[in-house]
Specification:
The chain is mostly helical. It has nine helices and no strands. It is elongated.
Length: 185
């Protein structure tokens, strides 16, 4: 006999609760504070319940990265879909998505980036996705300009995420507009 719809929903809710707790710990305290015990405690769940959904810290990090990338990809697709000019559309979407990504997700991105230093699997996933996105950019725009803009966009994301060059709303908008102007290939 299978699980009832209520049991399935409860399990899915618990999994989301565990992911939210893990994201909060990683974003606020850093990747070193992300332990299975801390996540279970933060989510108000037993360690056994956590292990039912995530068999290890690596599993949990993989799920966090998937969630982060899914949000970023959704933003990319939303911005690209709203852009009527196909030439350079993906580059412009990346500029918008990087400049206006949710701050909580940016902090989680920092934690995931830290984890990538010690987990080649996470790093390789990121590299593969970045290569795919760059290939898509290059297919619809001048390759050199698209590469430059993608590198600058990554720098914009890093600056926003790490607070390297704080900008007020107007300055950020002006930087984004200048970058977008450069995408008129």
């Amino acid at each position: 006999m299978g699980l009832s719809p209520a049991q399935i929903k409860k399990a899915a809710d618990l999994k989301q609760s565990l992911l939210a707790a893990a994201a909060q710990i990683a974003a606020q305290q850093g990747i070193q504070a992300l332990t299975l015990e801390a996540v279970a405690k933060q989510a108000g769940a037993s360690k056994g319940a956590l292990l039912h959904h995530f068999s290890s810290k690596a599993d949990l990090l993989d799920a966090l990265m998937t969630d982060l990338l899914d949000h970023f990809k959704a933003d990319l697709e939303r911005y690209a879909a709203a852009d009527l000019n196909p030439r350079g559309r993906r580059v412009r979407a990346a500029i918008y998505a990087s400049a206006y990504f949710e701050q909580d997700k940016n902090r989680l991105g920092v934690a995931i980036a830290a984890a990538m230093q010690f987990d080649p699997t996470l790093l390789n996933r990121w590299r593969e996705l970045a290569a795919q996105w760059l290939d898509e950019d290059l297919a619809e725009a001048d390759p050199v300009k698209a590469s430059i803009l993608r590198l600058v966009t990554n720098g914009l994301w890093a600056s926003e995420t790490f607070g390297l060059y704080p900008m007020d709303v107007q300055q950020r908008a002006a930087v984004v507009e200048r970058l977008l102007a450069m995408t008129r290939f």
